[in-house]
Amino acid sequence: MSLHLDASPEELKIFLEEAEEHFQTLEEDLVRMEKEEFNEDLMQEIFRASHTLKGSSATIGHNRMAQLTHAMENVLDKLRKRQIEVTSHLVDIFFECLDCLRVLRDEIINDEESDLNLQDIIAKLSLEAESDAASVQKEAETPPVTGKAVPEQNDGSELERSAGSSLELSWEEKDAVQHGAEEGAIPYWVRIKFNVEPEMAAVRTFVTLMAFGEIGDVIISKPTAEEIEQEKVSDCLEMLILSRAEEESIKKLIQELPDIEKFDVSNYSAPESSSGQPDNIEAAPKEVVAEPVTKGENSEKAGNGAKILSAKKTNRTVRVDVELLDGLMNLVGELVIDRTRLFQILNMMETEHEMDDMSQDLGRTSVHIARVTTQLQEHIMKARMLPVENLFNKFPRMVRDLSQKAGKEVDFIMTGQETELDRSIIEEIGDPLIHLLRNAVDHGLELPEEREAVGKNRIGQLKLQAAHEENHIIITIKDDGKGIDPEAVRQSGIKKGLVSEEQARRLTDKEAISLIFMSGLSTVKKVTDVSGRGVGMDVVRNNIEKINGAIEINSIVGKGTEFKIKLPLTLAIIRALLVSIGEAVYAIPLSTVTETIRIQKKQIEYVNNHEVIVVRGKALPLIRLKTVFDGSISEDEREKLFIVVVNLAGQQVGLVVDSLVGEQEIVIKSLGKYVGDVQGISGATILGDGNVALIVDVSNLIKKVAS
Amino acid sequence: MAEELMTGDNQYVVFRLGREVYGLEISTVLEIITMQTITEVPGTEDYIEGVINLRGLVIPVFNLHKKFNLLGGEITRLTRIVVVEVEGSNIGMQVDGVSEVVRIPGEVIEPPSKIMNGIDEEYLLGIAKLEDSLVILLDLAKVLRKDDTSMLDNFS
């Protein structure tokens, strides 16, 4: 069954975006509410989020959502007034509400009513709300809207009495009225008194204001749209509108609106006649009256209430389609390539014509273009960035739920939420992070009793940290749990046949622990128990390496485990080391390169028929890229070899290349589906001379060595 | 699809591969460029010569000689790359020379016969008998689609 909502697609879009914001606020704040001492600001924030949701869902006609938020609000109001206490059970209920709200939100997206039954949850809520029966009685008398004064007995006579204007107009507004009048619109004073429950007053006022937005321009209103949003409402609405409609049709419009007790429409005459008495409607609270003028610039422009509401948030930003950003990024990629090309041409010019005027001119221009291109690239990269906050926000609740289920006490600390990452990376990194966090809670941290037994604080610490480091983002997940025993990993590695006993013995502890990233090992249940790490660490690593990131693990038995994830700032452009193999140039992502070394051919030794060299006392397996890519096993005749040492997840391999070409920013291009996946190649890029270079897939090569 | 072609006139880009003359429907052809430096991609099918840079796009180049098991295929001054668009991807096809664009009436196109040596008949739309020559009309989608599956076999 489809929903019958009373809103345009535009309005729905705004609603959905705002709803998501409120959901996130609720999610974060509920976790805080449970953890922290009573905090009035926090309570207000939660209340406001829920209340705004109620108002806006009622406005678009999503009754079920309004119903649920209304029930939530009743409980929240009690909490806010400290009539009931925060309990973990109560927070659970609220989280359940949040899940329901998301389902209800999805109903809008799918335009289909879900089979979600709200009876249960609403019943739970009202049970909570009535847990303090005595105060409920009392509460019923003083409506729980906002604690702001609500008019006691506002009858028609007062409506008449304020027949003048109670609103003072700023000169801009007067100007607008005059302007409108010149164009044939008639200014009307409209005064409306509602007959509505106080809880719904704000919603009703808002809907009414919106309705007027459709037949004319609302020049000024009391309360203003902003005040309505903040709940500063009474049961009266007064406004000055400019409309081409007849007085009669305005009256008719009002009559069609629900919950209206009385109204009055009159022609508005010259602005000068405005008496300017701020307290004409005595029923309205004072603070409301004082405000309309200062909000003048908002109400002046806004044709309807929705615009007024969003104006504040969007004043300095523009929503842009991600595709447009992708397109821009591609274009900048082209420029980056041409920039390199330009310098090559310049070099040729300078050698051929020495330093004549023309090549000097070209030189200056090239330098400028290079600088502008770099800046353009930086700006567009920034435009694609989002704070990791968007991703991190859902974690506190996840950790809370997990730790409750596992019977553990966890102090979850997040830092660096403001760190920015390319949005495509944020999309990719979510799952690996969830996995690592879950592992930390499930297996890393011990039960409170176990912790106390070894002299640790019974509350385990779990830290999630994001930070900017040079050209990378480092995300760290650190727990102070039991850590991973390298000996246990060695043993199970041997048992699973991943390493020989001999190999296992030679592994450093760090290398041994890194074995958990290997696919055979991490999926074995037994190892999970011993090492304390769950299923699918290889998947975690693969996902991270897919986006040119790297993951590293440090663990000390008894002290805890730390995962360090190194991520590039962007996916599209990376720094790479260009190397040549025969005629061909290949690009190796610089993020994987540790060092380059030059060796004599005779330094190569053989272990198990594999070529290795000894670097600083450690054997480094070699891969000849020529052999991998040509298939030829031709003995290299050169006496001197270049080795590019690459490192991924603690594993080091030396790539043998013919020569080093240089370091450069490259734009990653896909080889396309007709070429398909190629062993050892992750993509292609275009060099300054216009030729195509292939990008070496380091993780793929390392895996090859490992197997 | 062959039936449809029988009825109307269609324009074809006509090119040479060895001694034979082939035609591709003009709507599939994006452009014809001179030979480029081709970067070999290791570990791919024999008939994929490699990739080239087409104004910032990296596109694969197919060698139809190897694909159809034809003789010759040396690169000469006349060698061209015909860039086609198939299912949203751009692909280059290395040919021995592009001669012209001709309009071929549907009635002169005959279904492919088995006499054609080398080329699998399923790659063909038909054979057009023109006054002085025979033009083999290729069904591009099929030429490339077959690769797709064999590629998957190779890499899985």
Describe the structure.
The complex is a heterodimer of chains A (707) and B (156). Chain A is an alpha+beta fold. Chain A has five domains: 9-141, Four Helix Bundle (Hemerythrin (Met), subunit A) (Up-down Bundle); 156-312, Histidine kinase CheA-like, P2 response regulator-binding domain (Alpha-Beta Plaits, 2-Layer Sandwich), CATH 3.30.70.1110; 322-383, Helix Hairpins, CATH 1.10.287; 387-484 and 532-568, 2-Layer Sandwich (Heat Shock Protein 90), CATH 3.30.565.10; 573-706, OB fold (Dihydrolipoamide Acetyltransferase, E2P) (Beta Barrel). Helices cover 48% and strands 22% of the residues of chain A. Chain A contains 28 helices and 22 strands. Chain A has a six-stranded mixed sheet with strand order 14-18-19-17-16-15. Chain A has a five-stranded mixed sheet with strand order 6-8-9-11-10. In chain A, helix 3 runs antiparallel to helix 4 (88-110). Residues 134-165, 271-314 and 522-535 of chain A have low confidence and may be disordered. With 156 residues, chain B is of the alpha+beta class. Chain B has one domain (2-150): Beta Barrel (OB fold (Dihydrolipoamide Acetyltransferase, E2P)), CATH 2.40.50. In chain B, 17% of the residues lie in helices and 46% in strands. Chain B has three helices and eleven strands, in the order H-E-E-E-E-E-H-E-E-E-E-E-E-H. Chain B has helices at 2-7, 64-68, 140-155, and strands at residues 9-17, 20-25, 29-34, 48-54, 57-63, 80-86, 89-95, 97-105, 109-110, 124-129, 134-138. Chain B has a six-stranded mixed sheet with strand order 8-1-2-11-10-9. Chain B has a five-stranded mixed sheet with strand order 3-6-7-5-4. In chain B, a hairpin with a 2-residue loop joins strand 4 and strand 5. Residues 1-6 and 146-156 of chain B have low confidence and may be disordered.
